[in-house]
Automatic annotation (TrEMBL):
Residue span, Flagellar basal-body/hook protein C-terminal domain: 249-293
Family listed: Belongs to the flagella basal body rod proteins family.
Keyword Heme: no
Residues in Flagellar basal body rod protein N-terminal domain copies: 5-35
Residues covered by the Flagellar hook protein FlgE/F/G-like D1 domain: 131-179
Transmembrane regions listed in the UniProt entry: none
InterPro entries associated with the record: Flag_bb_rod_N, Flg_bb/hook_C_dom, FlgE/F/G-like, LlgE_F_G-like_D1
Protein name as annotated: Flagellar hook-basal body complex protein FlhO
Keyword set, alphabetical order: Cell projection, Cilium, Flagellum
Lineage: Bacteria, Bacillati, Bacillota, Bacilli, Bacillales
Length: 298
């Protein structure tokens, strides 16, 4: 009898985590470069239930399989390209990422779906490579972000909204030369920052460090809108080449790719499923109460 109680309790925990994931997405609708997260649930191993016959014949009859509960295994980010919003600020940058990938066996261009995922005939899963701005946190660790709402401090260093240092293609901090204002800073489509001096000659400041994760599903969300690569999970991070399908837009920000309507539907579904499991737990609680306090007196 307690099997159903455990199953309902695991369902409540799973739906609570799903609810928390959707709530996180909704709270970051206005966060530049935010990528929505989906909670992936799986069932525990199923058990085969049979009725055992008498000892002499040894016959048994198979009833079927019994599920033993569900759990939230992982949270997967969706790297779908968000819309670009023009801000007009020289320190705002957005990435348009549409990098192609050839199949290792056929050599043909992989037709990714809208979510950037593809499953071939053999069941092998491929993800579209994604481009990120390369930054360094306060512990001198490399991090990757799609939030291009940068700022310039008093020393001319280009920083993220969280104060992380924006790096160039050689992993050096981007610093504006003395006397060069932010209004004079310009960028081309490959992230080359430059300005025009007094005689009208273009002077290159730095090349923004645009990193590409060939396996973005291996990146771990680190908070503050950044991702990190963990040991043992090879995301194959490399520098962007000029021939790949990624483009830098100055004066724009990539908005969150969260769908508010779908998020509200998912939020209500998680709440209803939680309430359903809760009622099952209450039913088992009443059944156990009768078994102990009423049946036990007979």
């Amino acid at each position: 009898m307690l099997r159903g109680l455990y199953t309902a309790a695991s369902g409540m925990i799973t739906e609570q985590r799903r609810h928390d994931t959707v709530t996180q997405n909704i709270s970051n609708i206005n966060t530049p470069g935010y990528k929505q997260v989906s909670s992936v649930s799986h069932t525990f191993p199923e058990m085969l239930v049979s009725i055992i016959g008498d000892k002499q014949s040894g016959n048994s009859r198979r009833i079927g399989k019994l599920a033993t509960g569900v759990f939230a295994e992982e949270s997967l980010p969706s790297f779908v390209q968000g819309d670009l919003k023009e801000t007009g600020k020289k320190s705002d940058f957005a990435l348009l990422s549409n990098i192609g990938l050839n199949h290792p066996n056929t050599g043909e261009l992989i037709p990714f779906d809208a979510s950037g995922r593809y499953v071939d005939d053999n069941g092998e899963v491929f993800y579209r490579p994604e481009a990120f701005f390369t930054v360094m946190d306060n512990n001198d660790q490399l991090r990757y972000t799609r939030d291009g709402s940068f700022k310039v401090d008093a020393d001319g260093a280009l920083l993220t909204s969280q104060g992380y240092r924006v790096l160039d293609m050689n992993h050096n901090p981007v610093v504006l030369p003395a006397g060069v204002s932010l209004d004079a800073l310009q960028s081309d489509s490959v992230g080359r920052l430059y300005y025009y001096n007094e005689v009208g000659t273009r002077e290159v400041v730095a090349n923004l460090g645009i990193s590409v994760a060939d396996r973005p599903q291996e990146l771990v969300r680190d908070g503050n809108g950044v991702y990190r690569e963990v040991s043992g999970a090879d995301a194959n991070i490399r520098q962007l080449t000029n021939r790949e399908g990624a483009e830098v837009r100055q004066g724009c920000l990539e908005v969150s790719n969260v769908d508010p309507a779908q998020a509200m539907v998912d939020l209500m579904a998680a709440q209803r499923a939680y309430e359903s499991n809760q009622k099952i737990v209450q039913f088992y609680d009443k059944t156990l109460d009768k078994a102990v306090n009423e049946v036990g007196k007979v």
